[in-house]
């Protein structure tokens, strides 16, 4: 970390003057340097061809540092993954900070380094952005907004309209891990080993799957806030389909399951960050899972459900002992400030 004049962020760092320029020169532009960002213009000049996807998201997780990551890489991975769910190859990001006065420079630097590393893993560039500082007590250390753009994969045809009766629903890995990593820190829970967030970029994994299975992949979505249950219920409602899922097939780490039980939380409603759901044609479901399980981001992938003609607009969970219940959306805020 370079030597800066202050140990913490001050209101002067958001003034647009000398301190702002020092912060950007020694921080953002230095760490995230690339040919487009280095133009330092009010916007970015980009070269794009064909059909594109665009997405934006804001991140206000608390705490900003958590087992397995921090708010910086979460912000990059979140927008990268949103683009990947569209069948796009993420290419460029914008990055905006709202920083609370008093944030330690060492913490800001650590966040920047995490952003740089996450961008390199996802093969994306930060090309424009903004930094603002608010008075102490009017923020919570730092909030981040990222927007991203990318080209749609030529073999991708991702849409809820493509879902059909008989489609298999596949989850790429263990559910509820990110949410419980955050909650374990907040609640001071101790386990044999630390529960770590699953935040990771999924774009390379998705690209390989689209390469192999193309339009047989009908829908991709990441179950972040609201968890798997809420996402499936939203899809059932908007697509007028029925969904059956099976508790025995839901992959979950034993420590995560224990933490959920201890806190009285249903893992189906807990947020995820390195996870995605796929609706795929039944004819390729087994091959899709086998391929995904060979990928580092899909080793625990499983088929968890089926699209059915019965009970349209409803998601039905069959329990491990054979009972059935309707699954609804998350009615309120189960885990605030989770992403």
How are the SSEs ordered, and which strands pair?
Blueprint: H1 18-31, E1 52-59, E2 65-66, E3 69-70, H2 71-85, E4 88-100, H3 105-122, E5 125-134, E6 142-152, E7 168-171, H4 177-187, H5 203-213, E8 217-221, H6 227-239, E9 242-246, H7 254-263, E10 277-280, H8 285-293, E11 302-308, E12 315-318, E13 324-327
Parallel strand pairs: 4-5, 9-12
Antiparallel strand pairs: 1-6, 2-3, 4-6, 7-10, 7-11, 8-10, 9-11, 12-13
Helix pairs in contact: 2-3, 2-5
Key terms:
Phosphoribosyl-aminoimidazole Synthetase, Chain A, domain 2; 4-stranded mixed sheet; 30% helix; 60s Ribosomal Protein L30, Chain: A; 7-stranded mixed sheet; alpha+beta; globular; 2 domains; 339 residues; single chain
Describe the model:
Residues 164-315 form the PurM-like C-terminal domain. The chain is α+β, with helices and mostly antiparallel strands. It folds into two domains: 11-152, PurM-like, N-terminal domain (60s Ribosomal Protein L30, Chain: A, 2-Layer Sandwich); 160-327, PurM-like C-terminal domain (Phosphoribosyl-aminoimidazole Synthetase, Chain A, domain 2, Alpha-Beta Complex), CATH 3.90.650.10. The chain is built from eight helices and 13 strands. It has helices spanning 18-31, 71-85, 105-122, 177-187, 203-213, 227-239, 254-263, 285-293, and strands at residues 52-59, 65-66, 69-70, 88-100, 125-134, 142-152, 168-171, 217-221, 242-246, 277-280, 302-308, 315-318, 324-327. It is globular. The chain starts with 17 loop residues before the first helix and ends in a 12-residue tail after the last strand. The model has no long low-confidence stretch (mean pLDDT 93).
């Amino acid at each position: 970390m370079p030597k800066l004049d202050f140990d913490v962020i001050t209101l002067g760092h958001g003034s647009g003057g000398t301190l702002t320029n020092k912060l950007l020169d020694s921080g953002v532009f230095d760490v995230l340097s690339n040919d487009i960002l280095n133009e330092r213009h009010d916007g970015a000049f980009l070269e794009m061809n064909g059909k594109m996807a665009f997405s934006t998201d804001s991140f206000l997780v608390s705490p900003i540092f958590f087992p397995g990551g921090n708010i910086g890489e979460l912000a990059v991975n979140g927008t990268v993954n949103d683009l990947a769910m569209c069948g796009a190859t993420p290419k460029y990001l914008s990055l905006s900070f709202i920083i609370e006065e008093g944030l330690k420079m060492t913490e800001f630097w650590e966040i920047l380094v995490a952003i740089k590393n996450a961008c390199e893993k996802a093969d994306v560039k930060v090309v424009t952005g903004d930094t603002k500082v608010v008075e102490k007590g009017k923020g919570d250390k730092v909030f981040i907004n990222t927007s991203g753009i990318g080209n749609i994969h030529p073999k991708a045809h991702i849409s809820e309209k493509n879902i059909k009766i008989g489609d298999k629903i596949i989850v790429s890995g263990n559910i509820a891990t990110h949410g419980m990593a955050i909650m374990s820190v907040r609640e001071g829970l101790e386990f044999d080993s630390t529960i770590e967030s699953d935040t990771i970029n999924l774009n390379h994994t998705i690209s390989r799957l689209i390469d192999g299975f193309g339009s047989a992949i009908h829908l991709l979505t990441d179950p972040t806030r609201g968890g798997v249950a809420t996402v499936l219920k939203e899809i059932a409602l908007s697509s007028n389909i029925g969904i059956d899922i099976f508790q025995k097939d839901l992959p979950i780490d034993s420590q995560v399951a224990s933490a959920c039980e201890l806190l009285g939380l249903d893992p189906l409603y807990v947020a995820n960050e390195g996870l995605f759901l796929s609706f795929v044609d039944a004819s390729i479901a087994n091959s899709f899972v086998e391929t995904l399980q060979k990928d580092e981001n899909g080793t625990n992938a499983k088929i968890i459900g089926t699209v059915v003609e019965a009970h349209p607009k409803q998601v039905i969970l069959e329990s491990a002992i054979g009972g059935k219940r309707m699954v609804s959306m998350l009615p309120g805020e189960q885990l605030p400030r989770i992403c």
